[in-house]
Amino acid sequence: MSDFHLHVTSTLGLLLGVCLAAGVFADVFHLPKVTAYLLVGLLVGPSVLDWIPEDHVDGFEPVLEFAMAIVLFNLGCEFTFSKVRRIAAHCLALSAAEILLTCGLVTLGLKLFGYGSGTAILLGCLAVATAPATTILVLKEFRSEGPVTESTGFLVAVNNFACIVLFEFAFLLIHLFQGKLDVTIAGELQWLFSNLGTAFALGIAGGLIISYGCGLLKFSRWLVLLMATTTFLLGACESLHLPYMVTFLVMGVTVANTSDMKNKIVGELDHLSGLLAVVFFAVHGTHLDANAFIAAGGIGALYIVLRMAGKWLGVYGAARLTRQPLEVRHWLGTCLFAQAGAAIALSTIAANRDPELGKPIQDIILGSVVVFEIIGPLFIRKSLLRTGEVPLAQAISHTNRTPLEQVRAVVDRFRAAIHQDAAERTVANKVKVSDLLRKTNGIHQSANFEEVISHIEHSHDNTYPVVDERQRVVGVIRYPLLSNVMFDENATTLIRAEDLASETDSFLYPDEPAQRAFELFEAETDDCIPVVARTEPHELAGVVRRSDIMHALITQRRKTK
């Protein structure tokens, strides 16, 4: 028994087991599950309890890369060209300001505190990167929708691409000024653009293969095709030393614009992404090194503060200058704090290329990642709640029942056996309308047709509240009526939102039980109902969606079984 060594498969089983405990931990303390998985991975990893052998941690690297590839593919699938044009119109200024200010603040701050110019510049470039897996999977966990969620996905994609390009250019210029450049500048630039171009080409090829193959093959064979394409391209990128993040982001964008079955393709990958997310963050947590954070010391803390300040101030300043909504100004920047994969990979490249220059960079990145990966999901959760892009009930996980609640659950099941809808009514009464509220300002009654269309482009509903100067609901616009006038050019130049609005008697108050919403939806075809304040002048607070009511019912029913 003294020669007993834990096998790598047992290590995986141990990680999955402790993740079950992490899920309970997240429910009790109302944490994003991503943070819980990272914390439990850190706890059992080499830097704390050391239950996981270090060589096993390194052995899981292909799994982490595969999970990252799937996340980036999913992210790319969100960007059709029409959506990119629409988002880019208001996000490019935010992205440019955030990238420049983050890079500039970190570079100047570290330089003022005595770090060399080369190290400060490279850390400034790496500070731009935002962890795509952490950020996107937190958004998916909370089923968030809205301008902040949409803009976050765009900025994450731009940040990581910009980080790679800035890092390579910075390294080239630093070696040029230090006289360490072994080849010509033209040769280095040719190598950089060749790598990026090849990564783009592989992504386009992979996307076309998936779009064509999923249109040709039976649905039951799609997952095999997706797995084969992803793993082959991931291996090709590793063999050719290409930035695989670019490849899979481009692959997703290609599928989004060449396949009419994009949603089904993403849905098929969701069968894998749940388990991959658990493994990814648990294993990623074991990579986090608490000692590295301590070793980074004051410089590491300075890097953390400057990076967070750059991202928030960059977004806030640009959003204010371009007159974007308050939610975007105050909360978009805080959705970009998470940092891991790209920064770690590039810092490792820096250490391998030039140990004297790159080793201090690697130490600071590894130390700061411990903080960013833990607080990043917490800031995203807070931002989503404050902007109203996720219902409160979705963000709060309910703990297991007490013994008395279990007795009541038995009674409820007995009642359900006698009367079919008793369970739905009992469950729906446990949740308030305020728990399911999605905030919206509605459409002002004087808005012209173009403004109405702009609002609808940012919405996932088919019913849109129309409000007056006092934010009172004067009616709702329903998609069928809108579609009747959409192609009449003479009408669209004259019509205002109030002309398209229909009267509605369906209103909800925030303190009502969700059962009331359930009853209204049974009598309505609309997919959302306005929620208004009880007191005069009954201002619009937001809407409750049919899908959120059903999600709450399904979630609660599962807990009662």
TrEMBL record:
Compartment(s): Membrane
Record's bilayer topology term: Multi-pass membrane protein
Residue ranges crossing the lipid bilayer per the database entry: 36-52, 64-81, 87-108, 120-139, 154-177, 189-210, 222-253, 290-310, 331-352, 364-380
Main location: membrane
One GO CC annotation: membrane
Entry keyword annotation includes Transmembrane: yes
Superkingdom to which the source organism belongs: Bacteria
Transcription regulation among keywords: no
Record SUPFAM superfamilies: CBS-domain pair
Signal peptide per UniProt: none
Start and end residues of each CBS domain: 501-560
GO molecular function, one term: antiporter activity
UniProt GO BP: proton transmembrane transport
Record's keyword terms, sorted: CBS domain, Membrane, Transmembrane, Transmembrane helix
InterPro entries with a match to the protein in the record: Cation/H_exchanger_TM, CBS_dom, CBS_dom_sf, Na+/solute_symporter_sf
Cited PANTHER family: CATION_H+ EXCHANGER DOMAIN-CONTAINING PROTEIN, NA(+)/H(+) ANTIPORTER-RELATED
Protein name (database record): Sodium/hydrogen exchanger
Organism: Rhodopirellula maiorica SM1
